[in-house]
Target: Potassium-transporting ATPase KdpC subunit
Amino acid sequence: MKSLIVAIRASVVLLLICGLIYPLATTGVAQVIFPKQADGSLIKTNGKVTGSKLLAQEFKGPEWFHSRASAASYNPTASAATNAAVASEDYVKATKDKINELKKENNDLGKDIPADLVTTSGSGFDPDLSPEAVRAQVPRIAKATGISEEKLVSLIKNNTKGRQLGIFGEPRVNVLELNLDLKKLR
Model:
């Protein structure tokens, strides 16, 4: 009986430390040191939350840069990858369908289509595209908005982020931030 009481006390103490005190302390420190990141890296426009730098959003219409495909239909409560094998018939069909859709939307799209335009990311919510994938959409957007291709390419260059610390990752463009800058041009 004595061992049971000790075990219950230890469980309650560990529950309070690990389940309450530690999470509150780390959240408090994060709010002080990294407030924007702790709040979800939210982007605000005119005081209103437009989205997060960390989550892809769906942009419809020929006048917008389109995000990478989402395995969870851009629903942040259902974050998921496709888990489809590259050689599976479903995956091949979905990729071919996406290629056909892109070619239909982007008449000037050549035969070298950037992979991130037709595949989903591991999380299903990658907010970034490669600069090549964004540039492939320029003719469609220029035609739909009347903004010159040169201005759009300049906009992409201004929104391209390089490798982290100069060595990690690949150059990338956050589609939400790019579209917010595009909206300012119109």
User: Anything to note?
Assistant: The beta strands are 42-45, 48-52, 128-129, 160-161, 172-174. The longest helix spans residues 2-33. The chain has a mean pLDDT of 86. Residues 43 and 51 are 5 Å apart (CA to CA).
